[in-house]
Structure prediction request, 231 residues.
Amino acid sequence: MFSENASLSKLIRQRPIVIELLETTGHSFWNHLDMTVESFCRETGTDFAELLRVAETMPVPSSDSDWNRERSYRIVDFLNAEHRQFRDEDIPILDRLFSRQDSSELPNSFGMKFAYQTFKSFAESFLEHMHEEEEHVFPYILRLEDVCTLNLESEFHPTHQISATMIASLGHVYEQHLDQLALNTGSLKDEMSDFKNRLLLHAKLEIEVLFPRAKAMEKRLEARRNILVFA
Ligand SMILES: [Fe+2]
Ligand SMILES: [Fe+2]
Prediction:
């Protein structure tokens, strides 16, 4: 999964839970994100093979974790794993189920084609949304938790308005179209319903736990900065 030349930054983006391990080395790694993992380990005397082994095999935190008590890197590790499932499994499966329906000669194939089209545009925006979170929003929050930077421009607020709209549009596909089509679309309906439910839980964790926490951290940083200004 990780090549020898992978940077620390890439390692943390893909498996944020390695922060748990990196913190135990006692070395500052936030200022060395561009270093390869190999040279970081060499310079800090960390066992490189062991670090990679742990990064690849460390279990993703369980979905029934008490998220309010978990560090952000554990929440993000879980959210990233869900992103992988949405991207690599759910979306391709739904796409296949839709295309099967679409290609058959159904009496109300117009409704099904519309539902498929709506799903495709949802999937396109959602893939972009996940990429944005993984590349910018989540790393920003992890960095924020480490209290190293002072970027008070909140990056995650706008992206989540988009997410709410996207989930609403998916719900619309499900409720207004699939559910009303008197067709034998059992597996498509079940898969869509399951996907939508997991997506709502995913968004709930981001919107109700991770992002409010990040906003609170930004406020604390701002308060601290104000104290420094007056000191
Ligand atoms: Fe997400
Ligand atoms: Fe999201």
Summary: The two ends are 48 Å apart (CA to CA). Residues 16 and 77 are 5 Å apart (CA to CA).
